[in-house]
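Dear colleague,

Thank you for sharing your sequence with our group. We've completed the structure prediction you requested, and as agreed, I am returning the results in plain text so they can be pasted directly into your records. Please verify that the sequence below matches your submission; if there's any discrepancy, let me know and we will rerun it promptly.
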Amino acid sequence: MNDKPEIIIALVSPVGVDLESINKILSDYLNQFGYRANIIQLSALIHKIDGLETRLSLETEDERIDTYMTAGDEARKKAERGDILSALAINEINQARQEGEPLPATAHILRSLKHPEEVQLLRNVYGEGFYLVGIFSSWTKRLRYFERKGITQEKAEHLINRDESEEFDWGQQTREAFHLADVFIDADKDNVDDQISRFLDIIFGKPFLTPTRDEYAMFMAFSASLRSGDLARQVGAVI
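Please find the predicted structure tokens below.
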């Protein structure tokens, strides 16, 4: 049995979180465990979908984000699948394999999920080899991130609200995907390195670490939501 099996780590976070720094920390720690990080940008896979009418814009950062959101919505609607981008990511992983065999000592990092159906597909395909990492940051910190990118507060708030939950089935549903995470990283704290290190320790060497307060609360909220038999009302909260 391969002692360093191929694993899949997907990131889910609200727009405005600095995922570049998260990617670097995660890749560095994976390297310490003898793993190579293969970054797969889900939004970049939109270019592989033929027939989309949305024109992607790179003129300004806010237009880039907004048009990619629109293209993602259109792709899900045309395919009538909320998991279309995850399906394309799975195809990317399969093409990277040799003779269909999983790549040893490889961690595929999928950045970033925006719909709960994407989570479900990846869990169905990869089972215990799949991990979902939820990364969160305060509204204020995310506005500051956009400010550094030259985006006005009005436009930033529009992007944040749109990303959290659009009012149709094939839209951005980051909020619904986020609570399905296996582990949560607070990007506002100074110990992001330690949080990521703890997550990887659980995977590779210390399975008896107990859940954090945030992780336990999210588990309880999710469990409470399942008490409703109406799929449209499966909402849980912990105070």
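Summary note from our side: The longest strand covers residues 130-136.

Kind regards,
the structure core
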